[in-house]
Specification:
alpha+beta, 6-stranded antiparallel beta sheet, two-stranded antiparallel ribbon, 6 helices, 25% helix, elongated
């Protein structure tokens, strides 16, 4: 027996918001969901540790832990307040001296791109015959990786010029589709690291010379981009790295 039509959108949304398994982050993986599965977000308890950049070590003190947590919260609020994550990251990098110039670029991982899961098709209102493309990228500023993202989008809701740029270049999606005056509807925003709430490690578990050990991912978002009339055209899964803290710790 099938559920009433009015209930189907709620079922789709529940699937997208269901607790996800941890991302695989071993040496042979990128920490991004595998193609052909429902996009997932990393579990806070399972993100793989990664040392901070040698150029920007943070001392492991209660004050710097609180500062790191506050910065992550600030970035989260900024992302929630703006439709374009790319523009938000460029402003963030400019404000904190990450990269010179503070220009965000997309590094595409074409080998990891694949068919969208059915849940994404349902979210975008795409039947089996409607093309949905997958773009897997790392957003970088200079040498710093700021985020890893999967973007499933409907090319039929973009212009021919936009599709040509997306097919031929690594330009960030948000910059390409900016003329659409799109809106961002956040489905989930999850902090993955709360350093001020954790006990400071000691001995071998601490970083070199008492430096703060940062995880690979610190924040994760799922969102849908829509046209001004509410028509969805893109589903996003974004994981923000500790690279967003690649600047000197506050004094």
């Amino acid at each position: 027996m099938f559920p009433p039509p009015a209930v189907l959108p709620l079922i789709v949304l529940a699937c997208l918001l269901a607790p996800a398994r941890a991302l695989e982050t071993g040496p042979s993986h990128t920490g991004m969901p595998q193609p052909g599965t429902l996009p997932e977000m990393p579990s806070p308890a399972m993100t793989s540790p990664a040392m901070p950049s040698p150029a920007t070590p943070w001392p492991d003190t209660p004050a710097t832990r609180r500062a790191a947590q506050d910065f992550i919260d600030d970035l989260n609020r900024a992302l929630l307040a703006q439709p374009s994550a790319t523009l938000t990251l460029e402003r963030w990098c400019g404000a904190h001296g990450i990269g010179d110039p503070a220009l965000v670029r997309a590094e595409r991982e074409r080998a990891g791109e694949g068919a969208p899961p059915q849940e994404v098709r349902d979210l975008l209102g795409a039947d089996a015959q409607t093309p949905v493309r997958h773009r897997r990228v790392r957003l970088t500023c200079g040498a710093i990786v700021l985020s890893e993202a999967d973007n499933y989008y409907r090319p039929d809701r973009l212009t021919a010029e936009m599709n040509a740029v997306l097919d031929a270049t690594d330009m960030p999606f948000g910059k390409v589709v900016r003329p659409l005056d799109f809106r961002r509807r956040t489905l989930e925003a999850r902090p993955l690291w709360r350093p001020a709430d954790e006990a400071q490690p000691s001995g071998a578990s601490a970083g070199p010379l008492g430096s703060l050990v940062m995880p690979r991912f610190v924040l994760a978002h799922r969102a849908v981009l829509t046209l001004p009339d509410g028509t969805p055209f893109s589903a996003l899964i974004e994981r923000y790295t500790s690279g967003v803290l690649a600047f000197p710790a506050p004094k």
